[in-house]
Amino acid sequence: MTRRLGALALAAAVLAVSSPPAHAAPTWQLRWAPDPATVGLRAFETVEDDRADSHPAGQPHIKVSGNAYRFDMHMVDRDTSTDRQRQEVTGNRISSTAHLQWRLGETWRVTYSMYIPSSLKATTTFTHIMQTKQPGTGTSPITVTSLRRVNGVQTIEHKIFAGNILVGRTNLEPLQNKWIDVEYEIKIGDGAAGAVRWVLRSGGTTILDAAKTGVDTFLADRVRPKWGIYRSLGDTSGSLQDTYLLLRDMRAYQLAGGGASPTPSPTPTATSGPTPSPTPTQTGATGWKAGTAYAVGALVTYNGVTYRCLQAHTAQIGWEPPGTPALWQRR
């Protein structure tokens, strides 16, 4: 018996050495972490600031305020559809030539801190402060975070738009006039292959952690996040007034590994401009190379110019340092 057990142990050891390793466990990889002071509104794919030019005196309605993005909404503001108001940004731009693409079958997470003043109230009609949508004019939302009055009570909620499926809801007023933390996760799936998780925290305490699986989170093409204030003027509670919304510490992560591709697809566009003047190469810098994993603080050279890595990522064609200020800072 002892000899047999020894043989089995040896066979297991040989199998462990000769067998190929299993796929690595999936991990969240940081893809987007804009610094408002550095990149400004270039952090976003598009900026929808007073699209109807209804209130030039209030422009810009979307701006950088300290270390945050600020969205101002005035009672006189009107969208192109005059029964509503909209000041929103869309997408995750990572360079002048690329933005993140959220595709079918992928899982994404965004985290950010949000300040909702008491002047930004829940309404009897829609007031959205975050959405996911298919890009394109006239497309329906996929998911929405809204400020909604329910039986006269101000609440903040998150829903799957198709089927009006509630993910989670909690009272709004205890979360106003302070910074709260948001974590939003979406598995992009068609039919019943999707999932959503929505988490709210205040002062380190989890206020709400809700999820829905088996839901539809895809329309066509891709999914794109939106932030800002988008509200109907049809409110009957008298809640509409001049207000604002603040967002900071915005991050986007993609679930990668386990056989999944960790690299988002950039959207290339033609660019032109002068080549920067070379600066002396600094000690420790290596030549930038696509396919290389760079840590924060890493130094590279590109066309004789030295750059410092601002966020960990795996380099790819289209993300060269001169065109990716969110990833690289010139030294």
The first-level CATH class of the largest domain is given as Mainly Beta
Number of domains: 2
Radius of gyration: 23 Å
Task: Write down the overall mean pLDDT.
Answer: 86
The first-to-last residue Cα distance is: 68 Å
Give the helices and strands as they follow along the chain: HEHEEEEEEEEEEEEEEEEEEEE
The general outline is globular
What is the fold-level CATH name, i.e. the topology of the largest domain?
Jelly Rolls
User: Which spans of ≥5 residues are poorly predicted at pLDDT below 50?
Assistant: 1-21, 258-282
In percent, how much strand structure appears in the residues?
35-45%
Our count of helices gives: 2
The largest β sheet comes out as: 8 strands, antiparallel
Helix share of residues? under 10%
Q: Class by helix and strand content?
A: mainly beta
Question: What's the CATH architecture of the largest domain?
Answer: Sandwich
Write down how many β-strands occur, each being a DSSP E stretch of 2 or more residues: 21
